[in-house]
Amino acid sequence: MRKTPYQQRIELLQGTLDLLILQTLRWGAQHGYGLSQLIRRNSGDRLQIDTGSLYPALHRLAKRGWVDSEWRISANNQRTKVYSLTAAGRKQLAAERSRWDEMLAAIGGVLNPAQAGGS
Description:
Layout: H1 5-8, H2 16-26, E1 30-31, H3 32-42, H4 51-63, E2 67-73, E3 79-85, H5 87-111
Antiparallel strand pairs: 1-3, 2-3
Helix pairs in contact: 2-5
């Protein structure tokens, strides 16, 4: 039986959304909808970030000084808030990526103990 796209969705680990937003903003400034679309597209349509999760995360990242925002006029002449990565955000991204790599190695060790040198 084939799973529907909804059933194939992957739930994000807590804290992973910040990493995804910071990484996506590393490629350039984006408005919220653009961020969610880039994350969805770059994940092969497996990760869909709801606005109820995205905007609180953007506000939290801005409060920490990792993201800046400014109002701009879009291509279709509408006012839109655009987010960009700050220098502190780039530093935080490097730390988050390092922790992510450690977590991947740890999970890989549990799933494949023989490859990790375990029993």
